[in-house]
Amino acid sequence: MAQGEALAEAYAEAGLHTGQSAHLSTVDGVSQRYGVVGAGIVGLAVARRIQTARPGSQVTVLEKEDDVGRHQTGHNSGVVHAGIYYAPGSVKAELCRRGRLQLRQLCERHGLAYEAVGKLVVASSAAELGRLAELERRATGNGVPGLRRVAGAALRDIEPHVAGIAALHSPETAIVDFVAVARVLAGEVTGAGGEVRLGFRVTGFSHVGSEMVVASPAGEAVFDQVVVCAGLQSDRLARLAGDVPAPAIIPFRGEYYRILPERADLVRGLIYPVPDPRYPFLGVHFTRRVSGGVDIGPNAVLALAREGYRRSDVSLADLRSMATDSAFWRLARRHWRTGIEELWGSASKRAYVQRARRYVPALRDEDVVPAPAGVRAQAVTPGGLLVDDFVLGGHGPVVTVRNAPSPAATSALAIAEEVVRQLPPGS
Fold this sequence. Notes:
It is a single chain. This protein is of the alpha/beta class. It is built from 11 helices and 21 strands. It has helices at residues 3-14, 41-53, 91-110, 129-141, 152-158, 178-191, 234-240, 316-323, 326-347, 349-357, 408-422, and strands at residues 16-17, 33-37, 58-63, 79-80, 119-123, 148-150, 166-170, 174-175, 195-198, 204-208, 211-216, 219-223, 225-228, 248-259, 270-273, 285-288, 294-297, 301-302, 368-380, 391-395, 398-403. Strands 5, 6, 7, 14, 15, 16, 17, 18 and 19 form a 9-stranded mixed beta sheet that branches. A 7-stranded mixed beta sheet has the order 1-9-3-2-13-21-20, with helices on both faces. Helix 3 (91-110) packs across helix 11 (408-422). The longest helix is centred in the last third of the chain and has 22 residues, at 326-347. The protein is globular, with a radius of gyration of 22 Å.
């Protein structure tokens, strides 16, 4: 049986559908019909929250792929963040705190792996100690559980092979399989009477009276309200729904290497550098996976396609879109030097490993092999500034999640609560 047919059969049993016809009509006794575009972890969390917060509503998730969690959800590092990086009192800090607790409870309820392997944020030179102190202030203000500053022997007790002069240790930072979480959420949606329709690629929105019609080559779906959680395509679908053009999405591919199994004991948990405050990226780091392996990365290089997970993936339409976007050129002018450094790391395995060796000196070039890459949907303002916060938008009966950067996966259940609060009251 082909993979697509196998998925269709499995999901039909679970209440997820891949059929050609997707026209929905009003159901007697249902107060509101809600459509959620995008079956990543945020979209599925939003769908589940609507069902919880607005009982009796009919909820349908529309997804263009043949499975859930196929893009950012399925291509991230699997880290459950504890709140080290965010300004105390900020929305991002609060959503991370709430979302982490909710995610842990969800994993416990469904028997999913949730491993608190701990994280070290390592200062490798005296020049980084000031930034490390600022991170400690933020993390303490955010109530990061068990946080402590370590150095010397205490640092090596946690990670025997690490190099650094000081570090912050967050013992509750954890790892999960976010695709497994997404599938559980999809199961909860269908179990509560909703639908997840796969193979439904949204191509337009239109108002027909008080209803919102969502168009696709697979047919039409009719709703009272719609939430767009489209990640890499969020700006495009937002514009189709009548929302403002900005912020635009610029795709950055994050490339990883994987440490060979016989050398994976070089890293016990998670080892991160002190991040550069100019960028929303956390730098190349070491990440243990729930599967048992250890990945190094990601870097951040411009992707030549919105969904360009391989270097060979090129979309002329996506390139044309960037080339005609003044925000992209303003961004490039601001950060071209860093872009060249990232490209060199992408082109040279030796340069990439040398950067990682700053924190684990025993790592050798021959210890690593390429691993699957991810693509970050980076929102950029018209002035070329990187957007590092959650951004919601909307037009009429449509709410759009315009930017959901890290720690979006950690915070997904809490983000869903905020999104649902933005929805107009049901009839």
